Amino acid sequence: MVWCKGIVLVFGILAFFCGSILAVLGPGDKYNGYQVWRVVPTNVDQIRSLIKLEHNFDGFDLVDFWREATPSSLHRPVDIMVPPSLRNNLRDILTSLSLDIEINIPDVGALVTGQMSEIQTRRANEPVGTAALSDFDYTRYHTYDEIQQWVSDIVTEYSDITSHFLLTTSYEGRPINGFRIRGRNSVASDPPPPAVWFEGGIHAREWISPATVMWFTAQLLQDYEDGDELAMSMFDNMDWYIVPSLNPDGYTYTWTNDRLWRKTRSDNLDSTGSGCRGADPNRNFPFGWAGNGTSPFPCSNIYHGKSALSEPEVDGVVEYLRNLKANNQNFLIFLDWHSYGQYFLSPWSYSAYAPNPPDYDAMMAMGKAASDAIAAVHGTVFQSGSSIELLNEAAGSSKDWGYVPYDETSKFRGGLGAKYSYTVELRDKGTYGFLLPEDQIQPVGEEMYAGVRAIGDYILRELGFIP
Ligand SMILES: *[C@@H]1O[C@H](CO)[C@@H](O)[C@H](O)[C@H]1NC(C)=O
Ligand SMILES: [Zn+2]
């Protein structure tokens, strides 16, 4: 069966996008012959043209800007995944803009298929479902079910300092589990201790995120049991809420059907009949919802959803945290773990014209403390800055919501009021992008473990728990 998706006028070039519907064979097949290109704009005309190009393709699910073109893209890479059918057109367009094309990934499908077959071969030779926590292999990527089992096992192993919570249930009915860490010497009272929120995996294809959250959390829990002074202070003086994998439907889909799926998997009941599923959960938070850096098209990777909080995964975060706020728990840190690019991104992201928020300098200082600690491990360089300075506009993002003051009157108003709110973009800088190989999980885990300890040290000093 042959389909034609539509016509787009791109810089005067008419393009039909046609293809054949094939049986879905594996999570990489869709991407056979796709390439990821990098261009680095050196003047504002090029930036304007790239933004227009991205805009023209928005909603067609064809050309995926892995790293977007934004007003802040000057001398910064823009990474574009190009399907084979558009290679010539796009090369002509970019060349006409005097942009040099560097090929980051020559064949996305081949890369995915290679990685997946390695994973599948290994899994086929492993005993299924019997791994105890002590056998959990942190150097590998894990399925959603395994991650949930890990949460359950952690809560059993560290039962005196952790407590499980069911955050909510995903669109397709999967439980989203998390746990709170509260040390043995915590003076839990009213009000409860100041708190930290870590969420991983909001974007399905960013596999390094849940893997890293599990890595450093396990290390820190072990540190606590070993009597490590910093870990003890972190958990005895603050509550740490951990959700390693927030987008179970999307994450599962990346394992079974489409390795580069980013969004949720909800049915958009799209009046155009596109059949495209899912919203970008990181555009579905209520603050600034449907503003700049979002898309109204259900097929877009930055589709903001039918309404603010339309995605149950996002609504679950907001409901859960508002409930804690209503019970007088104060959140100091809100941290959403992503890849890629190596950034600590603070608010704002909703508008390129927004002045820096009052706590910008504080957020930069904590970001620098973390970055210094990270760089000391393997030399990996992280940059700190606001989202609009370093990456993109993105209204309705988690980090803006994490920062905006709490408003008890409605979940559609205000946010969490955390003084330190970030999107962290883990490795790499684009060599593999979202397809970071398993052999980098350990170094990323090691450097981010150091980064989280630095964050702990920083906040405990601010609170006066470390002199
Ligand atoms: C959104 O972007 C448009 C175009 O750049 C701009 O005119 C508008 O002021 C922006 N809105 C906000 C809230 O920044
Ligand atoms: Zn992301």
Short description:
34% of the residues lie in helices and 18% in strands.
List the helices and strands and how they pair.
Blueprint: E1 2-10, E2 13-20, E3 35-39, H1 44-57, E4 64-67, E5 78-82, H2 87-96, E6 102-105, H3 108-124, H4 144-157, E7 162-169, E8 175-181, E9 195-200, H5 208-225, H6 229-237, E10 239-243, H7 248-256, H8 312-326, E11 331-339, E12 343-346, H9 360-378, E13 383-386, H10 387-390, H11 398-403, E14 420-426, H12 441-462
Helix pairs in contact: 5-6, 5-12, 6-12, 9-12
2-acetamido-2-deoxy-beta-D-glucopyranose (NAG) is lined by residues 291-292, 351-353.
Overview of the structural elements:
The chain has 2 domains: 7-112, Metallocarboxypeptidase-like (Alpha-Beta Plaits, 2-Layer Sandwich); 133-463, Aminopeptidase. It is 34% helix and 18% strand. Mean pLDDT is 93; it is low at 1-24. The chain has helices spanning 44-57, 87-96, 108-124, 144-157, 208-225, 229-237, 248-256, 312-326, 360-378, 387-390, 398-403, 441-462, and strands spanning 2-10, 13-20, 35-39, 64-67, 78-82, 102-105, 162-169, 175-181, 195-200, 239-243, 331-339, 343-346, 383-386, 420-426. It is built from 12 helices and 14 strands. The strands form 3 sheets. Strands 7-8-10-9-11-14-12-13 form an 8-stranded mixed sheet, with helices on both faces. The chain has a 4-stranded antiparallel sheet with strand order 4-5-3-6, covered by helices on one side. The chain has 467 residues and is an alpha/beta fold. The structure holds 2-acetamido-2-deoxy-beta-D-glucopyranose and zinc ion. 2-acetamido-2-deoxy-beta-D-glucopyranose binds next to loops.
